[in-house]
C-alpha cells in the first residue's frame, strides 16, 4: 500500500478551485486501487494535509495523469501559498485498537 500526502498553505479559494478540487476527489475515488483518504489541519502552522491511500503506484499515477489534476497543478499558485507532496510506501500499521483507521486496517503488533 502507498500513501500520497499533499501538504499545503492556502491563499484564497474561489469557485474554480472548488470545482477542480471536487473533480479531482471524485476522479480519485473511481480509480481502481484507490483505498481511502483523510485530511488534517494544523492550527498552529495553518497547514492542511490530505492523505490518499493507494493499492499501487500505478493507481496513484492514474490520478497524477488525470486532466483535472494537471490543470490544478498548473494553477496552484492562484490558491496555494506553497505545497509539498510526499509519496510513501506503508510498511506497517499498529496501535492499541481504540482508534479506527479510515481504511479499516486491522491492528498489527
UniProtKB/TrEMBL annotation:
Instruction: Write one Gene Ontology MF term.
Output: monooxygenase activity
The answer to keyword Oxidoreductase applying to this record is yes
What InterPro entries does the database record attribute to this sequence?
Answer: Dimeric_a/b-barrel
Keywords tagged on the record: Monooxygenase, Oxidoreductase
Name of protein = Antibiotic biosynthesis monooxygenase
What is the source species? Paraburkholderia agricolaris
Amino acid at each position: 500500500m502507498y500513501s500520497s500526502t499533499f501538504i499545503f498553505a492556502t491563499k484564497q479559494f474561489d469557485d474554480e478551485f472548488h470545482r477542480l478540487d471536487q473533480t479531482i476527489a471524485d476522479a480519485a475515488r473511481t480509480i481502481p486501487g484507490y483505498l481511502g483518504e483523510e485530511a488534517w489541519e494544523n492550527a498552529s502552522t495553518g497547514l492542511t494535509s490530505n492523505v490518499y491511500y493507494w493499492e499501487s503506484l500505478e493507481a496513484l499515477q492514474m490520478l497524477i495523469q488525470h486532466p483535472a489534476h494537471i490543470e490544478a497543478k498548473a494553477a496552484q499558485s492562484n490558491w496555494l501559498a506553497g505545497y509539498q507532496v510526499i509519496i510513501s510506501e506503508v510498511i506497517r500499521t499498529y496501535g492499541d485498537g481504540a482508534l479506527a483507521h479510515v481504511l479499516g486496517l486491522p491492528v498489527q503488533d
